[in-house]
Specification:
about 425 residues; alpha+beta; BirA Bifunctional Protein, domain 2; 2 domains
C-alpha cells in the first residue's frame, strides 16, 4: 500500500505517476471526496470531544454549588450520542479509504524503464551456451510420455485440467531439484529454511497484496464461517511472519526460504501454456524472501537475483536476466528482475524466476517494522521475494536441455547425489 500522505497532500502528482508508469487510472474525485469528508468528520469529532469535556467539568462545578444538574446532564448525553455517531462514521470512512488504497499498485523505482508490456523489457545479461543436438529435439511433453512419467490424463481424472501426475524416475528428479535448491540456499547463501502453512487467512493474503484485488486468482476453502486461502507461493507465508512485528536492526536482513506446494486458479489465463507442465494449477517452488532495511534493500535485491542465478549455473542451464519495464511488473513490486531459461523444445527463453523488491508497499499493509537505532523509532521495513527456483519449470528445462536421442535424460552432475548417483534416467 502506498503512503496515505501521497493521497492527501500529493494526490494529482500520485495520479499522474500511476497513469504514466502503470497505466492505472486513479479516481481523483473519489479521493478528494474522501479527504473532504475526513477533514469535516475529524473536525466535528474534535469539537464534540471538547464540548463534552467542557460540559463535564461544568457538571462538577454545578454539583459543588448544589445547582440543578439535569440540563447539563442532558446536554452532555446529547454530545455523547453525536460523538459516538461521528466516531463511527469516521471509522467507516477510514476503512473505505483503506479499501480504495489497497486496490492501487506500487509505484516503480526510478531505475525501472518505461514500457507498455513484456516486449519492452530490458535484457541485462545472458549466461551459458545454447545446446545443440544431432537429432530432432523433443519437448518435455513428448519426453514425459516415455514410461508415463508425465501423465496429464491421470491428473485430469483426479482433479481436472492443468493438474499432472509425475511418476517414477521423473518424480524422483523433481524431488532432487527441490532438495538441491534448498541445500544451496541454506548452506551456500545463508537462508533459514522454513516449513510454513499452505492455507492462510485473509489477513496474510492482504498483507502481501493478493487481496482484495486478485481474489479470483486464488483457491479458497470454507469451513463453517471460516474462509481461508491456498497460498499461490510461500512468499505469502514467509513474508507475513513479520506482520505486526518490530525487528531489531542487528538481525537484518532476514533471509528465509521454503519449499512448498503452490496453488493458482489463474482466472483469465485459459489457453496459455495449457499443454504440458509449464502452467499448472498446483506446482512447487523454492521461495526466497528477504526483510531488509530501506538503505540496503537494493543491494539485497541484487544478491537474491545472484542466488537464483546460481541454481541455473550449477545446473548448466543457459539463461538471461531481464529488467521488467513498468508495464510488465507485478502489483506489489517496485523493481523486478526476471530470469528466463532456454527451452530447446520451445526454441525460446521462458520465465523461471521473478525477483522483486516491494520496498515498503507490503510492509505498510502488514505493519512490519524495524527499530532504527539512529532515531530509536519503529520504521517500515522493505520486503523482497523471488523464486529460487520454480521446481516444475526447472524440471522441464533439465528434461529438454539434457535429453538424448533415445529419449533418456542425462542427470546433471550436481543432482546425482540426490538420485542414488544415477547418471541417466529412462
Amino acid at each position: 500500500m502506498l503512503d496515505p500522505m501521497m493521497f492527501r497532500t500529493h494526490l494529482r502528482e500520485t495520479a499522474d505517476a500511476l497513469q504514466r508508469l502503470r497505466g492505472f487510472t486513479l479516481d481523483i474525485g473519489q479521493f478528494e471526496a474522501f479527504e473532504s469528508e475526513r477533514k469535516a468528520l475529524q473536525t466535528r469529532t474534535q469539537e464534540l470531544q471538547n464540548l463534552r469535556n467542557t460540559r463535564s467539568k461544568a457538571i462538577g462545578q454545578a454539583k459543588a454549588k448544589g445547582e440543578d444538574l439535569a440540563p447539563l446532564m442532558a446536554e452532555v448525553a446529547g454530545y455523547g450520542d453525536e460523538l459516538k455517531a461521528s466516531e463511527t462514521a469516521l471509522a467507516a470512512l477510514m476503512q473505505a479509504m483503506q479499501d480504495a488504497m489497497a486496490q492501487v499498485p506500487n509505484i516503480p523505482h526510478t531505475s525501472v524503464p518505461l514500457g507498455k508490456d513484456e516486449t519492452e523489457n530490458t535484457v541485462l545479461k545472458s549466461w551459458g551456451t545454447l545446446p545443440s543436438f544431432d537429432f530432432e529435439a523433443k519437448d518435455h511433453v513428448a519426453l514425459g510420455e516415455k514410461n508415463q512419467w508425465l501423465d496429464a490424463a491421470a491428473g485430469a481424472k483426479l482433479s481436472g485440467s492443468r493438474f499432472t501426475v509425475l511418476r517414477g524416475e521423473l518424480a524422483q528428479l523433481h524431488r532432487a531439484l527441490s532438495q538441491f535448491m534448498l541445500d544451496t540456499h541454506t548452506q551456500q547463501h545463508g537462508y533459514t529454511e522454513h516449513n510454513t502453512p499452505l492455507i492462510v487467512n485473509a489477513e496474510s493474503m492482504h498483507g502481501t497484496g493478493q487481496l482484495p484485488k486478485f481474489e479470483d486468482d486464488l483457491f479458497s476453502t470454507q469451513v463453517g464461517e471460516s474462509k481461508r486461502y491456498l497460498i499461490p507461493t510461500s512468499e505469502v507465508s514467509l513474508t507475513n511472519l513479520v506482520r505486526d512485528e518490530i525487528i531489531d536492526a542487528a538481525d537484518m536482513p532476514l533471509w528465509m526460504t521454503a519449499h512448498s506446494q503452490c496453488f493458482r486458479a489463474e482466472a483469465g489465463s485459459y489457453g496459455r501454456d495449457v499443454r504440458g507442465f509449464i502452467r499448472q494449477h498446483q506446482f512447487e517452488k523454492v521461495e526466497l524472501v528477504a526483510i531488509a532495511r530501506p538503505d540496503e534493500s537494493y543491494a539485497v535485491h541484487e544478491a537474491m537475483t545472484l542466488h537464483a542465478e546460481t541454481i541455473l549455473e550449477k545446473l548448466g542451464l543457459a539463461y538471461r536476466r531481464l529488467l521488467l519495464c513498468t508495464g510488465d511488473m507485478g502489483f506489489s513490486a517496485a523493481k523486478t528482475h526476471d530470469l528466463e531459461v532456454w527451452l530447446p523444445g520451445q526454441n525460446s527463453y521462458r520465465e523461471i524466476s521473478s525477483i522483486s523488491n516491494c520496498e515498503s508497499f507490503q510492509a505498510r499493509r502488514m505493519q512490519a517494522r524495524w527499530r532504527n537505532p539512529e532515531s530509536g523509532k519503529p520504521e517500515l521495513v522493505h520486503t523482497l521475494n523471488g523464486s529460487g527456483l520454480a521446481v516444475g519449470r526447472t524440471l522441464v528445462a533439465v528434461m529438454e536441455n539434457y535429453q538424448n536421442a533415445d529419449g533418456s535424460i542425462t542427470v546433471p552432475e550436481v543432482l546425482r547425489p540426490y538420485m542414488q548417483n544415477k547418471s541417466q534416467i529412462g
